[in-house]
Amino acid sequence: MAACCSDIFQYETNKLTRIQSMNYGTIKWIFHMIVFSYVSFALLSDKLYQRKEPVVSSVHAKVKGIAELKEEIMENGMKKVVPQVFDTADYTFPLQGNSFFVMTNFIKTEGQSQGLCPEYPTRRTLCSSDSGCKKGWMDPLSKGMQTGRCVEYKGKQKTCEVSAWCPTAEVEEAPRPALLESAKNFTVLIKNNIDFPGHNYTTRNILPDLNITCTFHKTQNPHCPIFRIEDIFQEAGENFSEVAIQGGIMGIEIYWDCNLDNWFHHCRPQYSFRRLDDKTTNESLVPGYNFRHAKYYKENSVEKRTLTKVFGIRFDILVFGTGGKFDIIHLIVYIGSTLSYFGLATVFIDFLINTYSNKYCRSHVYPYCKCCECCAVNEYYYRKKCESIVEPKPTLKYVSFVDEFHIRMVDEQLLGRSLQDVKGEKVPRPLMDFTDLSRLPLSLQDPPPVPGQPEQIQLLSEEVTPRPSNSPGWCQCGNCLPSQLPENRRSLEELCCRKKLGACITTSEPFRKLVLSRHALQFLLLYQEPLLALDADATNSRLRHCAYRCYATWRFGSQDLADFAILPSCCRWRIRREFPKSEGQYSGFKSPY
Question: Which of 119, 179, 428, 581 is 20 to 30 A (C-alpha) from 226?
Answer without folding.
Answer: 179
